[in-house]
Amino acid sequence: MAKKQISERRRAAIELPSSPLWGWALVALMALFIIAGIFLIATGGIADARALGGGCVGVVRVEGEILAESVPESFFDIGVAGSEQIADSIKKADERSDVKSILLIIDSPGGSTIGSREIYTALKESDKPKVAYFRQMAASGGYYVAMGTDYIVSEPDALTGSIGARMSLMQLSGLFEKLGYNETIIKTGEMKDIGNPGRDASDEEIAILQSIVDESFDEFKQVILENRGSRLNMDAFEGKVLDARILSGRQAYDIGMVDEIGPKKRAIEKASQMAGFDEALEVCEMNEKDQSFFGQMLTQALSSLVAKEKVGAKLQY
Q1: In a domain, 154, yes or no
Q2: Res 60: pLDDT
Q3: Which of 78, 89, 136, 82 has its CA nearest to residue 293?
Q4: What does the alpha-carbon distance between residue 160 and residue 245 come to, in Å, rounded to a whole number?
Q5: What's the rounded Cα separation, in Å, for the pair 118 and 115?
Q6: At what angle do helices 83-95 and 113-125 cross, to 10 degrees?
Q7: pLDDT band at residue 313, thresholds of 50, 70 and 90?
Q8: Which has the closest alpha carbon to 94: 142, 130, 143, 136?
Q9: Could you report the per-residue pLDDT of 51-71, keeping only the tens digit for each?
Q10: Domain that holds residue 164
Q11: Residue 29 lies in a domain
Q12: What share of the chain is helix, strand, coil (3-state, %, to 5)?
């Protein structure tokens, strides 16, 4: 009898009131949750709710060598975001209402001319305030992409500069001879096998490739002049930069290649101020996928190598 009374008391404790008003209240509460969920999805997800509290600074990262094509992450490879993926992240930041400004964090030695231009173009097409932050390295193509922003903050010891373009040709004829390897080229034009590693490049071939490198360099220089011309010390720029030397953040500041020396915190503050906010906004990551801890360590190690030897005649910044 005692067990039966306890069971009846427990059942009574969880029974809902029989009043029809209670049922309608429960339905209304469930409908409210559904409507709120639909609203958040339709307006860009929970992140857009930040807009009610001021918004955020959208962070886009350019890390490691700049590639035109993404490298998928696998067990043997950390994966690298290509320029198209980074450009998409910039476009996403430009379209989101909660993102008030864009912070481009650069830690790259440069890379693909096509990839660098693609990221630069995406930045120029954005109407939002844009700040670049040089962490450890923003050299060559890493500096090129920063030209798409409105303001540059650099760590004092970050490496930048290396303004130029290059190709590298590999000559393996001596090795082929030792290995007994022989190759016969059948071609239709004199220059069809330009860059063939099995022989020395002719003077005419080198002149052709040099003209392409010079053309790319002229474009690079023009992009810098268009975006920072009035801020540059032109004598120092022409005498100490256009020979493609590496500079520290301090040296770049003295020449006018960066606007301010400071840490990441200062770059966030500046991006917030340019968006019209007195206080620093929170940040929201725009890159589709963050690297693992191992991936970040390997990226930093690779980024410390300024000169990279490439096989074949590949144009790079």
Answers
A1: yes
A2: 98
A3: 78
A4: 9
A5: 5
A6: 10
A7: low
A8: 130
A9: 445 799 999 999 999 998 866
A10: 51-303
A11: no
A12: 45, 15, 35
Tell me how far CA of residue 166 lies from CA of 13, 68, 140, 239, in angstroms: 79, 16, 10, 19
Tens of pLDDT, residues 73-132: 655 555 678 999 999 999 999 999 999 999 999 999 999 999 999 999 999 999 999 999
pTM over 0.70: yes
| CATH code, domain with 86 | 3.90.226.10
Check pLDDT > 60 for residue 250.
yes
Start-end of H helices in 15-66: 20-42
**Closest among 79, 234, 65 to 141, alpha carbons compared:** 65
Q: What is the CA radius of gyration of the chain?
A: 28
Structure tokens that stand for 117 in this block? 């231009």
Q: Which sequence positions are flagged as catalytic?
A: 140, 192
Residue matched to tokens 């144009």: 315
Give residue 187's identity as a one-letter amino acid code: K
130-139 vs 99-108, strand pairing mode: parallel
Residue 13 lies in a domain: no
**C-beta separation of 142 from 109 below 8 A:** yes
Cα(162)–Cα(208) distance, integer angstroms: 23
Quote the tokens at residue 51: 């807009």
Residue 312 lies in a domain: no
Going from the C-alpha of 9 to that of each of 19, 247, 299, the distances in angstroms are: 20, 80, 64
HSE-up of residue 128 (Cα within 13 Å, Cβ side): 29
- Give the count of beta carbons closer than 10 Å to the beta carbon of residue 143: 30
pLDDT at 40 over 60: no
Phi, psi of 243 (to 5 degrees): -90, 10
Structural domains counted in the chain? 1
Q: What are phi and psi of 256, to 5 degrees?
A: 95, 15
- CB 58 within 8 Å of CB 284: yes
**Rounded distance between C-alpha atoms, residue 63 and residue 52, angstroms:** 31
